[in-house]
Automatic annotation (TrEMBL):
Descriptive protein name: D-alanine--D-alanine ligase
Function: Cell wall formation.
Catalyzed reactions: 2 D-alanine + ATP = D-alanyl-D-alanine + ADP + phosphate + H(+)
InterPro entries assigned to the protein according to its UniProt record, in alphabetical order: ATP-grasp, ATP_grasp_subdomain_1, D-Ala_lig_Van_CS, D_ala_D_ala, Dala_Dala_lig_C, Dala_Dala_lig_N, PreATP-grasp_dom_sf
GO molecular function, one term: D-alanine-D-alanine ligase activity
Sequence similarity: Belongs to the D-alanine--D-alanine ligase family.
Gene3D superfamilies cross-referenced by the UniProt entry: 3.40.50.20, ATP-grasp fold, A domain, ATP-grasp fold, B domain
Amino acid sequence: MAFKRFGKVAVLYGGNSAEREVSLKSGEAVLKGLHSAGIDAHGFDPRHQPLESLKKLGFEQVFIALHGRGGEDGSVQGLLEIMGLPHTGSGVLGSALAMDKVRTKQVWQSLGLPTAGYRVVNRDDFDSQTLPEILEALGGCVMVKPAQEGSSIGMAKVSSVDELATAVKTAFEYDAEVLLEQYIVGQEYTVAILEDRALPMIRMETPNTFYDYEAKYQSNTTQYHCPCGLEDEVESRLQAVSLKAFDAVAASGWGRVDLMINDAGDVFLLEVNTVPGMTEKSLVPMAAKAAGISFAELTLRILQTAG
């Protein structure tokens, strides 16, 4: 594959979100990959220097490896676009929509795409008296998720009103809006997307209560299955559904769609990640490898999406 000239490239990583440590690891890995491919890439941590200096420092392209708020929610994308600096991944709309788990689900519902039942609670008008009814309506077991956090930060699985009240209170520390989602019993999968193409699916398996932060980044007991074990026809169908889900929130370039399949074979879309992890434990590099794409080529192809 022929790659365009990239010039001096800034890899944005670190930042100030709750996912800073993961972002630093992603950025370091991306830098290593780009360097091995001969790209003039340099790390740039917005915590330590203003983004406005990117132009003054002569950067021509930006690889966004910032996770979470301030990097994955459209704010950095908007600033870079105002500055006239091409950047990887989704634009303002796709980044903002995908970061918001509640709006993502509402868009999917409007298009008839499958997603789990849910309720939304807000910090300003939260009434704990409604929790018993919510828990019952959602089947007695609920995933509590801050609406705009990633890496499973602030999430909890609960099955009692007391647990739900505690988990909601904790989630409110991360976000004023919290998603209460029906807990799905089944297998969790992810579909990496690169240049409008779905890569081989991965099935995640963990002894933890769910695929949480520890399972994603710290545990040695999490298992990743690629091939994922599904029949080819089923995998192709789910890849197509994932591409529709990705397009529905105006995501572009590269990313990841997470989903679950319950014991009855029903599919439930979970979320879209527009700046997925790029660490040694990350899923997109794993799927790319299964598709015959080396890590260095992957970083180049993601950089190719800058526009």
